[in-house]
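ok here's the first one, seq then struct tokens
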Amino acid sequence: MGCGNCSSEGGLPKGCKNNGACGVSGCNKLEVFDWLADVALPAGATPYDLLEVRFKNSRKGFYRNKAGDRLQVGDVVVVDTSPGFDVGVVSVAGELARIQVRKKAPNLKAGEAKNILRKAKSEDIEKWKNVRETESKAMFTSRELANRLGLKMKISDVEYQGDGSKATFYYTSEDRVDFRQLIKDMADTFKVRIEMKQIGMRQESARLGGIGSCGRELCCSTWLTDFRSVSTASARYQQLSLNPQKLAGQCGKLKCCLNYELDSYVEALKRFPSADIKLKTEKGVAYHVKTDVFKDQMWYVMKEQDSHESDNFIPLSPERVKEIIALNKEDKFPADLRAFVAVKKAPPVALPEYNNVVGQDSVNRFEHVFKKNKNQGKRRPKSKGANSQNQGAKKQGDQKRPPNPQARQQGKSNPEQQGQQKTGSNQRRRNRNNRNRGRGNKPQDKPAV
């Protein structure tokens, strides 16, 4: 069905919600997005009965849905090839197919299109897969047969018909090749009808595919269908070095992408004077070296009269070059070409209004956190038991103290309590003296009371 990755339900792919317009059936090349899939037909209009069916690689054809089956993008169908039948996948259906017919096959008549026989059954798909698996082996075998006959040709691809009764061999060659004997040998080896088709280098790259020097898939194998000729003039307009190793693609021809920006370069170069005109000065003649379209500059080098060619390149704007050319036409020669060099000052950059509110731009914004963690690590943590004991001792001490501070003041100011405390201290002093006397110590003489 329409989307091989998210399966289908009720005749429509589920997951992507494009209702059959995506056409993603396993990431095949040259897919078409049906942007008219959700547009309803006017009242009384019948759907367009021609559909575009895609076969191996980029080969496509238009077929008529004569049976009136409900077909949409991604359906595997069996088409009439007379003789035999072929198996393909519907790539465009509906009103978009009408636009594709006008674009690709404007001279196609209604009765010339072949018919779609039916939707492919499991037996048809199984047979189609089996013959597709033998294509690689058949290609190498055919190359060996061509080498035995000494033919200067390269067989690049093989395509079997869906019913396995016919095989088409695509080859490239610079000269005309007589392959009549090769066809006889192939027919005896493969036991099928043989058809030979010569293709160009660009078509070969489109069929085989690959990765370009830009890192992306080749344009010819993904979306490019119109192969236009590319000349070295495209590289000259863009001031590129004529290095065939860099300008050539995998097909051996000049890269198709050289034509992508050619119109922009041609339009921009209209502002520049001709590069063949030499600038004459009193010191000598200046020759054009290169043109920088992006910087709007033309580079010249001076060939002085008394010395060899100088290594200093002089950049000039196109307006300045036109002024010097006008002076030369009047037989006037400027003293020095460097006087026409315009020094362009870079415009001041307007900085945005920005305030470092939370300090996210500071390099040292996390230092206080590191210092805090470091100081906490040096401190000795107290155990929970010690803390609980200290808290219990504090509570007991609070209970022993008099609840009222006025009571403590009254106890200190009572004279009777103070006299009792003095009498107790005198008695302790007498007992200590008596113990010392018994040990031989001479007590001090005290006057009798």
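and now the second one, same deal
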Amino acid sequence: MKRQIPGLHLDQSGADGRLEGLFLVRVERARYRWHPQKPFVEIRFVVVEPKLFETRSFSGRLYCTERALWRLNWFLRDFGYDAQLLKDDQVDEKALFNLRGVVRTSYTTLNGHSYQNLEAFAPEADWEALDCTSLSHGDGQGGSDGL
């Protein structure tokens, strides 16, 4: 069986292959993954803007532990997830498909492995108001109080 894997031919080694900063994205795929201690929703995003990174993609995890549910809720609200499903404590993987919003990402290395962090979220409508040039490289400050 043949599989199409966009970007396979590109050399993305080193820092040039990393997507780090502020991006307007759409959800390409979402999957719930059960784990005994840390269940999570794995989300694959496709970059819409900035145009320089258009069609590039990256994945991230939003954990479903009691302590981490606030971040999943933040993501769902800012990306325009169905309010009734959210009120009913339901995550429908199909309802996440094509949702759009803003995400700020960074990388962390732990035990020799690099992980993409989903640091912050904002509604798609806020994209134009955000200063993308100054935030795209990150300043290492700000925490998770917004973009």
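notes on #2: Residues 20-124 form a domain with the OB fold (Dihydrolipoamide Acetyltransferase, E2P) fold (CATH 2.40.50). The first helix runs from residue 69 to 78.
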